[in-house]
Amino acid sequence: MSLTREQVEKIATLARVELAADVTTEVTENMSRIIDFFDTLNDVDTDGVAPMAHPLDMTQRLRADEVSEHNERDKFQQSSAQTEGGLYLVPKVIE
Amino acid sequence: MHRLSVLELSRGLAAGDFSSVEITRHFLDRIGSSNDLLNAFITVTEERALEQAAAADQRIKQGTAHALTGIPIAHKDILCVDGVRTTCASKMLESFVAPYSATVVEKLDQVGAVMLGKTNMDEFAMGSSNENSCFGPVRNPWDVSRVPGGSSGGSAAAVAARLVPISTGTDTGGSVRQPAALTGTTGIKPTYGRISRYGMIAFASSLDQAGVIGQSAADAALMLETMCGFDTKDSTSSQQPVEALHNELEGDLKGLRIGVPDVFFAEGLSDGVKAQVEAALNVFESQGATLLQVSLPHLHLSVPAYYVVAPAECSSNLSRFDGVRFGHRCDNPKDLDDLYRRSRSEGFGPEVLRRILTGTFVLSAGYYDAYYKKAQRVRRLINADFQQAFEQVDLIMGPTSPTTAFPLGEKTDDPVSMYLNDIYTVGVSLAGLPAASIPCGLSEGLPVGLHIIGDHFCERKVLSAGHQFQQVTDFHTLRPEGEGA
Amino acid sequence: MSWEIVIGLEVHAQLATRSKIFSGSSTTYGAEPNTQASLVDLGFPGVLPVLNEEAVRMAVLFGLAVNATIDQRSIFARKNYFYPDLPKGYQISQFESPIVAGGEITIDVGEDQKQTKTIHLTRAHLEEDAGKSMHEEFDKHTGIDLNRAGIPLLEIVSEPDMRSAREAVAYLKKIHALVQYLGICDGNMQEGSFRCDANVSIRPSGQKELGTRTELKNLNSFRFIERAINVEVERHIDVIESGNAIIQQTRLYDPDKNQTRAMRSKEEANDYRYFPDPDLLPVVIEDALIEQLRQQLPELPDARRTRYENELGLSSYDAEVLTNSKSHSDYFEALCATIGDQTKLCANWVIGELSAALNKDGLDPQQSNVSPDALAGLLARIVDNTVSGSMAKDVFVAMWQGEGSADDVIDAKGLRQISDPEAIATLIKQVMGNHPDQLGQYRDGKDKLFGFFVGKVMQAAGGKANPAQVNQLLKTLLNENS
Predict the structure, then answer these.
(1) CATH no. for residue A13?
(2) Domain C421-479, CATH class in plain words
């Protein structure tokens, strides 16, 4: 299937990605080709086949409810662009 | 000194022929003189390496050394190393200093291996040519106008040019095996779940698996054995006991049943590669192995299935790069949306953005069933094909890559043709199988890789077959000549 | 036109685990910002979640308590959206195959609360909490604290079975009591441990299809929930009756203005792109674990209420009020156990004086200034007639203010009641001697003067005479010589 420019723009919004107007055309074409390629999956009938989310048939291991972490805020915030009083800062959000 | 294998270096260290500091300096010098051309390393950690080497020498003197103590290694720059810049070859993480170490890194630190630095790669491990790096492409030491493959291209090129004796890599759809094939090195990725993914920056969680790129199956076995093992920090880590590997590769090939799927030799495979792979299969046969035709009827769908599943997981895994807690943040964001969109668009390269968009699309309302779920169903069929084949054979073999190393820039314009390059490797990844690529000759002066695929948890069988092959051939000892070497 | 109100509730109960659902960070409330946020909670590159066993057990306990189906193979999924307090850009939640499916609870409805109604649950699933956004601290910025990110939540989703704000509150109180009885949530609404979103719609009475709904957020007390739903229902009716249509949206309740408004941050339609989290594997719950947890189920509110009515002989009202809150009910039981055989008196005091005092100071029964033992000491003095019921209330106030035990206060204030029959008879005789006219009139048949004598005797006793004894003796003595 072919994607429209509007579809690509909507996807870009969902993914919080900015596409310049001139890039959008190219991305739309490229993605359409990729999606076309995906459509070859329809060559096979998968009725009754369960989706396989993991390569191994394992089940979730559970962790004991114990506190094992301690405060390392200063170290972790060294990589942050903007913090104040221990809080991460972002442009003001109006709820 | 750089002509020695890891096992030889290890023996030399034990015998006192040289010290770890000496070999560490030697390899650091080699990086210093060749890296400008090859661009295999993003970061060289000289100071840390020399400290580790000095500590390793102490340990060797005290008699508490492991076989890897004092051996220089490199880590793909996707593995977090505490206090060391970890970039994933992305502008997004250009100045990110990891505050912790990956489990794999810790394991190798613990045995006293010496990390020389972090190797270049395709950004966030997305690519098959190493051209998608914000630090520029890696060049293939066999021909510097060509790509080394990807995404672990830096690791592969570094080992091929002997800038380091051995390196970690990671493999999501072939990222260890394909560059190993294109650079004449030995690469293995184990069964999914064998090596902890903790600290390995995620691309596609259900496919990502660390591996090794080295000079031989025996060297790779030693390092792989050290990296494997259950980790409480990774829920997908397997509790299957780890087999001893590096001392257990002897034996012979008599009676080994090798499956050869015709789909691996179909249209798209270059003649030169085909000839070398067939010759290699003949070597196995002449050593007593049996070649059997096996059928993998759904394998041709592995590329589209993979390129649905991997981007889907990637689109979600990469959402955490939002400019808030770490990573690139755009200048003067006017509001939150602007902060997100500009930080991400500036921080990610075009291939990463493309996969984020494709992945977002296949998960979005109205397309989830048709693409994501469908691909996961096809994945089960591909896995079943392999399982059926392994009822008849011990290993499956074929080419690792349809062509030898291609020129830089040749395929960057066409994503689909680039994706098709992964035809032999991604099926294995979808099924979570262990697989290696070992050098099996040259075609027009460029290395060709033989792909050896095993059933789940059969790493030893894979490496053992590779090792037996390397006992009777010398392809793995061929080294590039000229500028890159 | 008459409208039918349709309400469904989503409750988020923070599970009372020590560590977070996918990391080993502490869940203690009130820590300095981001000091309880580990690499996993912050969503650093390369980190991975590992599921907390206790969170799973708690979810199963809840499922068993509401007679739901426990999904023996449940799946964690990623809910993808961007928000600064959501570090990974997705929330680990459950979508297909939640851990608890179905279930039901019963609430009391009708004017006299005498009828019951069953509210069906759709599901309950485990998920991680998001962090906190501080919008007020800075001029141009929002501050993000991720201490709360990763705290385990049980999201309990009801069917749209409720037909009034009152029913919604009854349901919510029931769930609130239940999670506390189970010991899986502390129920603290101020600290956000127990939160609720309401989906509200209206439809013409008799119509089958549901109307367009709006989702109300930020409902952090039972009182606000009731008011918010009522005001939102009025808004729906106004909009529809003026010929417009309700827009499906998320709205915030503003308790100061008592109105709701659309949330700006939720304006665009979201597409959460749920898919199974590849970092987590299917959670398999063995039958043995389910059976083990079933054995561990404590006495639940409904059972306790029935027991109070049938075995303790409490009224249906008292039984309900007491069992609505586990901590009140536990206090009541401790009190009864200390004093013995005075259930009605204990119930009255817990529902009356104690609850009033707790409410006034905003305290929980466990934090009460007067412990069950101390209160038992006071009630014993009522039983043995040392103080009257009304004097006991004064003693209680003094005890609440820390003036000591019941006996200390009684002695210090000289409140000991006169219950010596001779002393009372002496008082009565004095009063009779002082009021010969009234005595004569009474003896001539003016019965209503009895009250006059009671008043005078009590006055003479300084209010400390045992009223029952005064009554009894007065009757005898007034009629004695006639």
Answers:
(1) 1.10.20
(2) mainly alpha
